[in-house]
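We include the entry.

. . .
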Amino acid sequence: ISNCMKLLLNILCLLGLILTSCTTIESLSFDIIQPAKITFPVYARSITTVSRKMPGKEFNGTYINGYENLQKLSIKTRKNLGATIERSIINTLNETQYFSRIESYGEIDAEVLNNKIIQGIKDSTSTSSILFLKSFSIEPTLIDFIYGPSSEYYTSTFRIKIKAIFDIYLGYDIQPKTIAFTDSIKWDSYSTNKEDLHQFIPDIDECLKEAAEYIGNKVVQQLLPSNKNVKRFYFNTSSPIMKDADRYWKSGNYDYASYLWEYMYETNKKNYFKAMAAANLALYNELKDNYIQAEIWARISIDLFKDNSEERKMMENYLKELKKRIEDDQILRFQLI
């Protein structure tokens, strides 16, 4: 063989090694069910909503005009926001059909519910659990901006910051479980003249109504299992086996893809390729809800990847998320029966 031919063969061999070792990270996302913050036993899945009688219907906040001057902002409402929150919770809960019975008790002039009040509510509504709106506060902020040297363009943002605390009395439990959250909702407007600056912001009562409904939807998310979108990844290379597995995976033939990854893991002598195959098998088993098997493959992959490599770090982070899913799965078994 001539020297030129030898050189050509060496180049081709080197090119083949480069192509087969070229690795890409394929991303995907899917929905999972995450458990509720509060677990209602089966015997406690009938509920009454109660709200504490709030003393005033005036809320104080801040107004920032276009020149960054701070002024006091005070808003008033004619609406009973506690009742609006209750209605929002009840309407949302009714749509889920998670509770066998849902009742509204209305307002009560008490900061905490003692045993006598609790029993009275349960007796009058024939429910086993109570959701008590213990307190909520609203802080409004209005910010006006002026753009341009001659004040030719205006924007405005009206934001309502919400704080709410709920006590939940489950079944026969005397001590409540408490959920609290702080969030905000906003409305934007704009204009070329100052007089019409707030034209796209609803009136105060409508904004407060939307804020109260927002509270209701938020608390329901704490009470029921819900969907959550998660991001995952798998490894692909230019080797024929991995390319075929990738085609099967993207066409929805997950089982066929897993067969090829298993073959890659069993037959390849290089730890790097075995690690990628093991990582992909971890994802496959997670999608099949085989969490224990997924954890085994994830640990195998981590052990095979080199220390401090990016791939190992990615799999270590994946394993943390997988272990959280395993913990959540134990909770969901009780919440979904």
